[in-house]
Amino acid sequence: MHTFAELMIVLIILLDMALAVTGSLSSCIRLVAAQGVVAGLLPLLAAGGATHTRALVFAAVIITLKGVVFPWLLLRARDRSGARKDVEPLISYPASILLCLGAFIASSWLGSRLPLPESGVAWTVPASLATIFTGFLLITTRSKAITQVLGYLVIENGIYIFGLALFVEQPMLVELAILLDVFVAVFVMGIAIFHISREFDHIDTAELSELNDWRRGEYGK
Amino acid sequence: MPLFLLSFLLLLCGAALPLLLWRRPLAAQRSAVCCAVAASAVGLVPVLRVLFTGVPASFSFPWSVPLASFSLLLDPLSALFAVPLLLLTGLAAVYGAGYLAACAGKKPLALAWAAFNLLTASMLLVFSAANAVLFLLGWELMAAASFLLVLFEHEREQARKAGFIYLAAGGTGALLLLGLFLLLGAGAPSMDFSDFRVPSGGAATAAFLLALGGFGLKAGFIPLHVWLPEAHPAAPSHVSAVMSGIMIKTGLYGIIRVLGLLKPWPEWWGWLLLGLGLVSCLGGALFALAQHELKRVLAYSSIENVGIILLALGLGVVAAACGAHQLASLAFAGALLHVFNHALFKGLLFMGAGAVLHGTGTGELEALGGLSKRMPAAAAFFMAGSAAACALPPLNGFAGEFLVYLGALRALNSPGSVALAGVLAGLALAAAGAVAAAAFTRAAGTAFLGEPRTERAAGAHAPGPLMAVPMFLLALLCLLSGLAAPLLLGPLSAAVSAGFGGYYGFAAGLEAMGPFLYISAAALCLLGLIALAAAKRRAFLGGRQPASGVTWDCGYAAPTARMQYGASSFAQPLTDFFQPLLRKLGQYPVISEYFPAKASFSTEAQAVFYNSVYTPAAVRLRDLAYRFSWLQHGRLQLYIMYIVVTLIGLLLWKL
Questions:
Q1: How far is it, in rounded angstroms, from Cα A84 to Cα A166?
Q2: What are phi and psi of B613, to 5 degrees?
Q3: Of A82, B274, B509, B542, which is most buried, counting CB atoms within 10 Å of its CB?
Q4: What are B71's strand-pairing partners?
Q5: In total, how many domains does chain A have?
Q6: Which of A107, A109, A155, A214 is most worth mutating to test chain B (most B CB atoms within 10 A of its CB)?
């Protein structure tokens, strides 16, 4: 039964790689949604058939949110903001994928060093760490606000999988809390994106540096 | 202990209620004052019980904050600090009700009162916390609440500057304290004070220096005093009374606690304390003499008094390190007694200054004059406070200093270094007392005696009963605690025992009893003589009215108020002598014609340390910080990357 779960893990890692090189904003949103759905299915597969009703309900909620609600919100935000349709990376795509691969290697090493209980599914910890790193990569190297939301969601997927490694039996409360966090954060960021695009006519966060208070010209006056 | 907790609860209610009633400022004020007074009355019961029985009370409450426990310990030392705190805040709240009534509608009174009660509660927490995290929580709350109160008149630029300096000093102090507690708590099973391992050697020295810096920034001795003369005058007067009377004592409380923990003391710690105390009692008195604003005079006088307390602590530590334990006990008792006494008389003085500000709208000494005719009661109270601050018997300022003098005189018979410390302490106390007497004669004389110098002073009105009654009570307490000094020795020796060790408390009580009885007897004789003289005068007058004439006539044909001695001219001989230290800026007229011509004269007291030490240092620091401004570019992505890199670094470090 774990074979399926391990296949899913591989899928998640592949989705990380795909996210690092995808240039189109809408594909990015769809990839993140797909990753969310896969992550939501994982606990069902890892539990090996004997699932509780509450786990099923929980997985359904997660999959609905990550697979349907979030992508819908984000696609709508993309359309409304009238921004360019690509992710506008600050570093080149080859550099992104190299960094992503490096992150995967680092997470494999880290995963072997972390003192964690053995979970039945192989590669859970490295995959979750790699996903978290990919999320950070999206946040730090893409200039649009919307990609930051995406990065945040990817990090959440990573934490979700990590939680799976730790609490195979009772992931419920922990993840509900995280999910609530993310849900609020997506809304807040959605509003923030709306405001950024209204005030500055675009959603490029780099322009926020206009607001910084260390202006060289004014120093010492 | 339940009553003590009830007092906390009342104070928290007093902080919350005004915010709920913020639409009706006077109702908010009334609720806050009632809560503050009730909290004082309720809190004084357990505190006095601990102080007089000497049996500590403790309380512990499970708390989920990491490393912290909500444990309170009220021992006689805490109680000795908590008594003036509760007395002064209760009276200051009543006074504040009269003082701030005129601001209703113009100022956010609700916020000010919430901050006031929060300040009281946080100080109570500081004095009773038995856990380092809880202590720091109270410490930071205290800084935040008092910061809000310093900014009460934020439309004045001076108040904003004061607020900024205050915030910077508070932050630096808290940082040092964090270091101190980390050092003391390293390896201890919990952050409770009772669990701290006593460090030795270099670690003990580091802890002592961190405590001296961190607590010293709150205590405000020279050279860590720069925020004090800015912040205390900026706050409303009843808050200045609390800040100067008791808040700076939280710093001294911390230093005493750390000293109590880090025994045995090396001799040089004592010399360091003695030196700092010497510099700040002399410097504070001198700078007080040069100030032009009434509340600034009082603020510098607070620096002087903190210096006196520190001097006594230093003398005690030197003596204890050299084995002269009786002498040390006298010095410690003097320090603690002066803590109590200074709170009373400095509270009274700031309230008096507040009455002047309230009645005339200005605290500039050169604009006042003749106020004793316009507000006789306030003038009498202020002069009583001044006499106490100059350490004149029978008022209470004398008692604490007398113990230190006694210790200093005893020291002359002791081995070399103790004798030297005694000589230094005695000389410094005497010199500072003389200069302080000059400063208070100048301040009280210029403001209250003579003729009004301006229209504002001429049109002054007397403070209402809400302001006058607390001042009267404080003046009465100043007199009574001076007269009843022998009765205070029991609680005092309990506090010395709790702070420094059982032996010192016992010896202090024994050593000081005899002299105190003599003093009280002499003071009662003095009062009797005064009463006798008053009765005689009454009898001589026999119901006739004494004639009254013009003040300051001096034989001039047409004297004007401007011919009086002013604040600057009164102090000029002394301030000129100390010009190298004071660095007054001034313009003096040069007389070159035979006939009178228009001339002008001005002097300005400088904040010497602020201008010549701290400002250049701050400029250096800013230049240094500017080198790193490339880190501060405003790009969101890179900021997040800093966080990620830090997190990964921490993860790798912990692996």
A1: 40
A2: -115, -55
A3: B274
A4: B60
A5: 1
A6: A214
How far is C-alpha A173 from the geometric centre of its chain's CA atoms? 20
Packed helices B132-150 and B109-128: angle between N→C axes, nearest 10 degrees: 150
Radius of gyration of chain A (CA): 19
Q: What is the spatial distance between Cα B651 and Cα B636, in angstroms, rounded to a whole number?
A: 23
Average pLDDT over residues B388-414: 86
* Average pLDDT, integer, range B563-576: 83
For residue B324, give the amino acid letter.
Answer: A
Residues 610-639 of B with CB under 8 A from A: 626, 629, 632-638
Q: What is the pLDDT of residues B77-87, one digit of tens each?
A: 999 999 999 99
Place of tokens 């990919």: A134
Full DSSP string of B442-510: HHHHHHHSS--SSHHHHT-----HHHHHHHHHHHHHHHHHHHTHHHHHHHHHHHHHHHH-HHHHHHHHH
Instruction: Kindly report the pTM of this predicted structure.
Output: 0.81
What does each C-alpha distance from B339 to B252, B319, B334, B421, B434 come to in angstroms? 9, 20, 9, 21, 20
Question: Span B159-184, mean pLDDT?
Answer: 92
Asked if A210 lies within 8 A of B635 by C-beta distance, the reply is: no
A110:B651 CB<8 A: yes
- The set of residues, in sequence order, having a beta carbon less than 8 Å from that of B298 and lying 6+ positions away, is B232, B233, B240, B244, B288, B346, B349, B350, B353, B443
Backbone angles phi, psi at B604, to 5 degrees: -140, 125
In a domain, A214, yes or no: no
Least CB–CB distance from A140: residue in B626, B637, B651: B637
Q: How far apart are CA B1 and CA A43, in angstroms?
A: 53
Whole-angstrom CA distances from B1 to B119, B253, B525, B582 are: 21, 21, 41, 49
Contact at CB, B634 and A212, closer than 8 angstroms = yes
Average pLDDT over residues A9-15: 90
Strand partners of residue B107: B104
| CA end-to-end distance (rounded Å), chain B | 46
- Shortest CA distance to B81 belongs to which of B115, B55, B53, B44? B44
| Angstrom distance (rounded) from CA B257 to CA B252 | 9
Give the bridge partners for B192, in sequence order. Answer: B131
Output the pLDDT for position A1: 52
Question: In Å, how far from its chain's centre is CA B412?
Answer: 31
B564 contacts B369 by C-beta, under 8 angstroms: yes
Type of residue at A206: A
> What percentage of chain B has pLDDT greater than the value 90?
50
**Inter-chain CB proximity A148 and B651 less than 8 Å:** no
Q: How far is CA B346 from the centre of its chain?
A: 7
Radius of gyration of chain B (CA): 26
d(CA B102, CA B466): 13
**Structure tokens, B178:** 């964090």
Contact A136 B626 (CB under 8 A): no
**Comparing C-alpha atoms, which of B314, B287, B553, B564 is closest to residue B438?**
B287
Which residues constitute the domain of residue A104?
A: 2-206
Amino acid at site B310: L
Out of A119-133, B12-26, B260-274, B290-304, least confident range: A119-133
The answer to the question of residue A220 being in a domain is: no
| Whether the Cβ atoms of residue B270 and residue B310 lie closer than 8 Å to each other | no
Percentages helix, strand, coil for chain B, rounded to the nearest 5?
Answer: 75, 5, 20
